[in-house]
Amino acid sequence: MVRPDTVPASPGRSVGEAATRAHANMRDRVYGETINHALLELFTPGRRVLDIGCGTGVWAPHLRRRGAKELIGIEISPVAAAEAGARYDRVMTQPSESIEPDDLGERFDTIIAADVIEHFVEPFDELQKWRDWSAPDGELVISTPNLRHFRVLGELILRGRFDYVDGGGVMDRTHLRWFTHRSLADALSRAGWEMVRIGEVRSGRSGRVNTLAAGRLNGLLTVQIQLVARRRR
Asked: Model pTM?
């Protein structure tokens, strides 16, 4: 299957080597120290939860209060993983790309991938793998920067700028892949998922504008795509 937006490896280098370099650039970056409450409101965690890129594990008490019984995390930053280990039942420190189903045990009711898919060299392969890790009625909770946000488009169209920055945000320099709502929905569908819920901008000036437009401007006003998909049988 031909995948869109494929980033070729450098001459003489494999995709695996490219992934290793990408992860090396992230290992000293500590993500996951805040709660994405808007994303949390979109789902109710199942009994067994996998949190990919779990950071320091700050989601743990929120997930347990909402019904999660077993929390497994994947976190490649040693600093963050050490903290998460005190909050999750188990934290794996190898990249998702190198994890096999036997390493994880039984399948998961909920898989969380909050702001991680944009860091993968081959996110399309990961979406398919996560489907195989999911229980028959399992859900994937995912968020990623929105390339169609009006500020990104304004910089690109009006100023010809597409500049990366340090310190996080939509244009963080560690981001390798980009999605819009539609392109992510298409990628999920090809990987065997069906979208069941999507987040909308509701607060601030952008929220008021989106409400007046009956939600039709959601794709331009949301900084971050947030959605829940269910494994398609």
From this structure: 0.84
DSSP line for the chain: -PPTT--PPPTT--HHHHHHHHHHHHTT-----S--HHHHTT----SEEEEET-TT-TTHHHHHHTT--EEEEE---HHHHHHHTTTSSEEE-S-GGG--GGGT-SPEEEEEEET-GGG-S-HHHHHHHHHHHEEEEEEEEEEEEBTT-HHHHHHHHHH-----BSSSSTTBTT----B-HHHHHHHHHHTTEEEEEE----SHHHHHHHHHTTTTTHHHH-SEEEEEEEE--
Range of the domain at 64: 15-144+177-201+224-231
What's the CATH code of the domain at 31?
3.40.50.150
Domain-located, residue 158: no
Indicate whether 78 belongs to any domain: yes
Number of domains in the chain: 1
Q: Is residue 98 part of a domain?
A: yes
Give pLDDT tens digits for 137-185: 999 999 999 999 999 999 999 999 999 988 777 888 889 999 999 999 9
